[in-house]
Amino acid sequence: MRDPLADCSYNKVYKNLKECSQNGENFCKQVTSILQQRANLEISYAKGLQKLALKLNKALQNTRKNCLSSAWAWAAEGMKSTADLHQKLGRAIELEAIKPTHQILSVQEKKRKSLDNEVEKTANLVLSNWNQQIKAKKKLMVSTKKHEALFHLVESSRQSATEKEKRKLLNKLKKSTEKLEKEDENYYQKNMAGYSTRLKWESTLGNCYQSILELEKERIQLLCNNLNQYSQHISLFGQTLTACHTQIHCAISKVDIEKDIQALMEETATSSTEPKSELLLTDYFEEDPNNAMNKERRKSLIKPKLSRLERDIEKASRDKEGLERMLNVYSSNSSFSDAKSQKDTAALMDENNLKLDLLQANSYKLSSVLAELEQRPKPSHPCSNCIFKWKEKEHMHSYVKLSRPTLTKRLENAVSRASAGGQNHPSSSSAASVVAPPGKSLGKALYSFQARQDDELSLVKGMLSRQFLKSNKFMRSSFKFVNNPHTYNTRINYLSEQKPIPFSTSNSVEYLIVFSSMLSVSEYTCLVCFPSWCALESSILKKYHKS
């Protein structure tokens, strides 16, 4: 059976990082063991230190060549020349290097096991869903065949059967239809669940990838700290070590931890090849041109499935538009969100895009079959070259390869977007100075308002000063204006325009309205916040200014 995880780029990158991490952990353990032995052998250091130098050189042969390994090589040479170190050095090494290293490695080992278990668990979910889809499909195919046989029996016996026999056959056909619809829905839901389990697995791989990368950075920092501690203690042991330590200190001072981390990032980075996700497509009995079903019957069964897909595609498209608007708001004004909100929204966008691509691929496949039945040209779609089939015994299975953003791009996209937003809006005052030019930044409140929450701004009837417009609190606060108990009419006069901007709604909803000028005085944005969601309605104001 086909393994859906075998060709996943994320999985390969994660395994490569794990192998690199294991080698680094082994090296760290070897260095810690060497330091412990040195501490124990300080009383008879001469002979013991020579052996440790050989062991350290051997350990360095199997590790990555970088700044740290080069510095440790110089440390090994220093061990050979050090003949009169005493017990104080051993105790210092034991207290400041060995003990913290053991503690950190112990914590890292537990965390690595937890990460591996999490990845394995989500991978099993993907495999389980894959197998469940295959089983559900086989079950649906068998039920469809039986249903079609019963359907033809009913059709053929209309003339010869008695009324009692007809009723009996129709009851069987009704039960068979209900069973078939239930199995079809079950198969469809399992297919739809496939993308979410795949996303969860890939997301887990991404999170674990970042966690292990952080552990590697921590380990490199630990080795660097141990090396610096080692250097400090050796420098205290008299003139006899001065000549040797000069060389060691020179090498250690050239340690560039950022260079080592950058080398690690480059070695474990994702490839330039765009990764693809493999997802099963729905395969129905009526799609097979070799079955005994007539064309009209096949068309009548395919059309409802296409309608269901079109409804889901329309809903997913609306979700995509909403998420795009949210990301545009986040990128244009960083005060509305933080890095986590942008990252979560970007993850939702990626999930929705994958769902939409899967729905469109299923719709394209069914539309192609329907077009062939209706003897018209097949529809065109970008995913037509991404759909593949393979045969397993007597069944044909269809799957689609969907292009995805690379792992690091997908994980860091939201964070970079937040960083860019921060650069565009360095402070509330500077933002106000760009958005609201002098002489055009004053506004008048037509109604008084008392703040009831921390993020609101109290207003009095009359002028609203430029300082309020420049303040971060004004840019983010919510204004509630009440005109009468039946209709809320809110109007703010911008002195530069000398025009009232009316907004109204029913008495069942309170509008929280934030006005801010964006880019120029001719473009205003109104953010209408409901109890649990918000929508950006800039088109209202644009139409107003055009009029």
From TrEMBL:
Stored Gene3D superfamilies: 6.10.140.470, Arfaptin homology (AH) domain/BAR domain (1.20.1270.60)
Q: Which SUPFAM superfamilies match?
A: BAR/IMD domain-like, HR1 repeat, SH3-domain
Extract one GO BP annotation from the record.
signal transduction
The record's section on InterPro entries has: AH/BAR_dom_sf, F_BAR_dom, FCH_dom, HR1_rho-bd, HR1_rpt_sf, HR1_TOCA, SH3-like_dom_sf
- F-BAR domain residues are 1-260
Q: Where is this region: Disordered?
A: 414-434
Please provide an example of a Pfam family that matches this protein in its UniProt record.
FCH
Q: Where is this protein primarily located?
A: membrane
CC terms in the record's Gene Ontology section: cytoplasm; organelle; plasma membrane
**Localisation per UniProt entry:** Cell membrane; Cytoplasm, Cytoskeleton
Q: Give start-end ranges for the coiled-coil region(s).
A: 159-190, 306-333
Task: Note the PROSITE patterns from the entry.
Answer: F_BAR, REM_1
Q: REM-1 domain: which residues?
A: 292-372
Going by the UniProt record, its keywords in alphabetical order are: Cell membrane, Coiled coil, Cytoplasm, Cytoskeleton, Membrane, Phosphoprotein
What name does this protein carry?
Nitric oxide synthase trafficking
The species this protein was found in: Oryctolagus cuniculus (Rabbit)
Point out the gene that encodes the protein: NOSTRIN
